[in-house]
Amino acid sequence: MTQTKTEQGNYKSEGQGKQAIVIGGTRGIGEAIIRQLAAKGMSVVMVGRSDTTLRQAADRIRSAVPGAELRLERADLSLVRDVRNLAERLADSTSPSVVINNAAVTADIRAHTDEGIQLTLATNHLAPYVLMRTLAESIKKGPVRPVRFVVVGASPTVLKAFPVDLDDLHGQAERALSRFPSLRPFAAYARTKNMNTMFVYSLARRLANSGITVNGAHPGIIAQTGLARNARGLEKALATMVALNPFKKMPDQGAVNPVWVATDPSLDGVNGRFFVDRKDVTTPDHTLSPERCETLWERSAKLVGMEP
Ligand SMILES: NC(=O)c1ccc[n+]([C@@H]2O[C@H](COP(=O)([O-])OP(=O)(O)OC[C@H]3O[C@@H](n4cnc5c(N)ncnc54)[C@H](OP(=O)(O)O)[C@@H]3O)[C@@H](O)[C@H]2O)c1
CA 210, 169, 99 angle in degrees (round to 5)? Predict the structure, then answer.
């Protein structure tokens, strides 16, 4: 663990006594985020959808960071009822300094959950929407204290070409996603990553002066993760190019920017921003309009049965 010497000559870890919640931490960048937070001495609640993958990831993290304090929480983030239960459990049993939403999928555009919601939309946007709203409401009932929410987003440069269609959140107009069928799952994914950014801006406005801040963080283009595991055609070709790049970045490098946004003292009080490579950047115009962000907020509330 990273340790610093105190004035009294004792060693102290930077994150000692602090708790983090990481949503989607059983592989890839999420697992690396947990490893880096644990190495700072934070205790981490890691959320995944299967007891087996949670245990396996926890074992790998503990062997890299001996003494890592981990609590495992199972929830299927594609199901609103599971996310609501998870949020209530976490609200009752944790006191986090950091909450990072990392989970995402690139799913078949026709795949819907048994709650009737398109799978990518449910997992990538509605899960953090329900979870962070619920946790924020619960934290706000206690004394004001600094808490950082971080939503792992994606490259604003790439996302420029995939504005959210507010009248078609499920992406039913398939040709409008892309004229190439094999790229449609990626286009639907990219729209949900823009929803992540718009959600950050709407939530940040509501959290002003509450002690809680929320920011977005792009991990970089990272190889050896599970995100493109179902890719085919053109999307698979793009994923192969990333995998074959001799200068490719690995999950540990992908965790650096989100962990920095979650913990660096220079960002105390910074709220409603988006960071790439530790730099504050401007996201695409179509994510910036407060009216569009509010419409997304209201339509998302309706989909998950929350008050707008
Ligand atoms: N890789 C890149 O180049 C890249 C680029 C830009 C942004 N990002 C962002 O970085 C984040 C992490 O991506 P990654 O590349 O590390 O992908 P990944 O390896 O596929 O990891 C995604 C994580 O989310 C979990 N997850 C997915 N669906 C879930 C569900 N229904 N319930 C519970 N957990 C679920 C996965 O669990 P399982 O182990 O059960 O699948 C896994 O732990 C995502 O937000 C992604 O959008 C990645």
Answer: 30
Go through the domains of the chain in sequence order and give each one's CATH number.
Answer: 12-304 (3.40.50.720)
- For 218-255, the DSSP string reads E--SBSSSSTTTT--HHHHHHHHHHHH-TT-B-HHHHH
Over its C-alpha atoms, the chain yields an Rg (Å, rounded) of 19
In this structure, the dihedral spanned by the alpha carbons of residues 68, 74, 80 and 83, taken in order and rounded to 10 degrees, is: -40
User: In the numeric block, which tokens belong to residue 61?
Assistant: 């993290």
Condensed to tens digits (0 to 9), the pLDDT of residues 12-52 reads: 678 889 999 999 999 999 999 999 999 999 999 999 999 99
**Closest Cα to atom 38, ligand 1: which residue?**
26
Enter the pTM of the model. Answer: 0.96
Give ligand 1 pocket residues (Cβ under 6 A): 24-30, 48-50, 53, 76-78, 102-105, 123, 152, 154, 193, 219, 221-222, 225-227
Q: Which atom of ligand 1 is nearest to the CA of 189?
A: 47
Q: Measured in angstroms, how far is the CA atom of residue 252 from the centroid of ligand 1?
A: 14
Residue with tokens 């309706």: 302
- How many Å lie between the centroid of ligand 1 and the Cα of residue 237? 19
Do 126 and 84 meet the contact criterion of CB atoms below 8 Å apart?
A: no
Q: Which of the listed residues 225, 244, 283 should we mutate to test ligand 1's pocket, taking the one with most ligand atoms within 8 A of CB?
A: 225
- Quick check: 55 pLDDT over 70? yes
Q: How many helices (H) and strands (E) would you count in the chain?
A: 12, 10
